[in-house]
Each structure stands twice: as C-alpha cells, then as structure tokens.
Design brief:
alpha+beta; four-stranded antiparallel beta sheet; Helicase, Ruva Protein, domain 3; elongated; N-terminal domain of MutM-like DNA repair proteins
Length: about 270
C-alpha cells in the first residue's frame, strides 16, 4: 500500500506538470472504486484550474477554483504523467486531461478514490478527525507522551492510529521503533517521555529519508514516472525475519500485532 512517503513523492512529482493548468476533461472508465465516482463529477470540474497540489495524510488534494479534488491511491493505485498517446490498460480507471499532459490513475484492486468537495477540505468527513502530520511541529515526543497516557495498547498500534498521527504506516513504524530501541508490543502508557522524544525524532527522520529517496519499493507502488521507489535498501528490520540484526546480529523476529506483521530485534528493543 502506498504510504505517506510514496504519496508525498507522487505529489512532488505531479505538481510541476499540473499546477496552474486548466483541466480539459475528466475521463472515467471505471467508476466503481472504493466509493463510486459521481456521475456528474466530470461536468463539475471541467475547466477548473489547479491552484495548489497538497497532501493530507495519504490523500492528494488538487485545490481548484471552486473546490478540491481528493485522490486516494488505495492499496495498489498509482498516478502517471503522460504526454503522448498511450492506450489505457484494463486497470487504468480515469484520466485527468490537462491538454499538454494527462494524469492517469491505475489501480488493479480498485480500493482508491476520486472525490470532490466544495466545502473547506479540512472539514471533509475523511479528514476532519485525523491527527497531525508527523513532519509538522505539532508532532513531537511531548505530544506522543500526552496521547499515550493510560493506554494499554501496543505502542506500534498507537503510532499507526491515524487519529493520533497520520501516515506512520507499517513499514515506517517498524523501522522507527527499531531505531528507538522500543519493543513494538510494549504498552504505550508505560513508555517514558524521553523514549517518546527519541521515537518522534526517528519517525520524522525515517519518513523524511523515505521521501528523499522516492518511497519504499513495494510490489504495487510506482512513482509518477512509472519507476519503483527505492527506500527498501535502507530497511533494517521490516520483512527481514531471520536475518541478522544490523546492531547485535541476533535474528530479526516477526510477530502479528493488530493484524499486521511486525519485525523487531528481541535483544535491542525493550
């Protein structure tokens, strides 16, 4: 699944191609995505100019004259910038045609979304209850410490909770907890402020590194040019069950936490 770094990489990639451009037409081939694409959406957004390309959590926000287009990549979605003739494939569900270029959305699993709102976008039901961005000043060790008091849930579950902080997906939670020396199943309410300060800094660093390197190579993720991300070579524990820990050489272990695979070093993480 594309996570925050992959979506941010996509945002940065498409922005130079569409910012300030007028949408000529929306071509919908398959409206049955996670939520059905509104039948009248093409006529609502035709002729509108892209004033800004933003991101909130894992949603791309195309801010236009009269509203905002929300795009979610789902489990396997990608956006590609096309400048020439290219016959759409069976999983190419819609095009945003800007004349000089097109954004083509491909999604084999159809878990993505294309939504439109004329209300303030931050008040959209999908966004209004989200926690702060992990790279923002609002997110820090003190914030994590405050929001973990009295919680018995595993710390990994808490940092992956979008109502606490957005965008810390499974890969990046595993990596950040390893760098912080925190066992993923440790109850969130039993972790000190000092350790949360270190964890918050590591979350920021891991996410920023992934953004700088173009995201994480996953089976389904490709960036806006169609090339895979390449942060995977930097992963220390994720998907490395049985491999030696890069710090102490103990075997990396795997455990199911909250329906997701967790990878950690039982020696380095407490």
């Amino acid at each position: 699944m594309p996570e925050l770094p992959e979506v941010e990489t996509c945002r940065r990639g498409i922005t130079p191609h569409i910012l300030g451009r007028r949408l000529q037409q929306l071509i919908v081939r398959q409206p049955q995505l996670r939520w059905p694409v509104a039948v009248d959406l093409p006529q609502h957004i035709q002729g509108q100019v892209v004033l800004a390309v933003e991101r909130r959590a894992k949603y791309l926000l195309l801010c236009m004259n009269e509203g905002t287009l929300l795009i979610h990549l789902g489990m396997s979605g990608s956006l590609r910038v096309l400048t020439g003739a290219d016959t759409p494939g069976p999983h190419d569900h819609f095009d945003l045609d800007f004349g000089a270029c097109r954004l083509r959305y491909r999604d084999p699993r159809r878990f993505g979304a294309l939504l439109w709102t004329t209300a303030p976008v931050q008040e959209h039901p999908l966004l209004v209850h989200l926690g702060p961005e992990p790279l923002s000043q609002k997110f820090n060790g003190e914030y994590l410490y405050e929001h973990s008091r009295g919680r018995r849930s595993a710390v990994k579950t808490v940092v992956m909770d979008g109502k606490v902080v957005v965008g810390v997906g499974n890969i990046y939670a595993n990596e950040s907890l390893f760098l912080s020396g925190i066992h993923p199943v440790r109850p969130a309410g039993r972790i000190s402020l000092q350790r949360y300060q270190r964890l918050a800094e590591n979350i920021k660093q891991v996410l920023q590194n992934a953004i700088d390197m173009g995201g994480t190579t996953l089976r389904d993720f490709y960036n806006q040019s169609g090339n895979p991300g390449y942060f995977a070579q930097q992963l220390r524990v994720y998907n490395r069950e049985g491999a030696p820990c890069p710090v102490c050489s103990s075997a990396i272990r795997r455990q199911r936490i909250g329906q997701r695979s967790s990878f950690f070093c039982g020696n380095c993480q407490r």
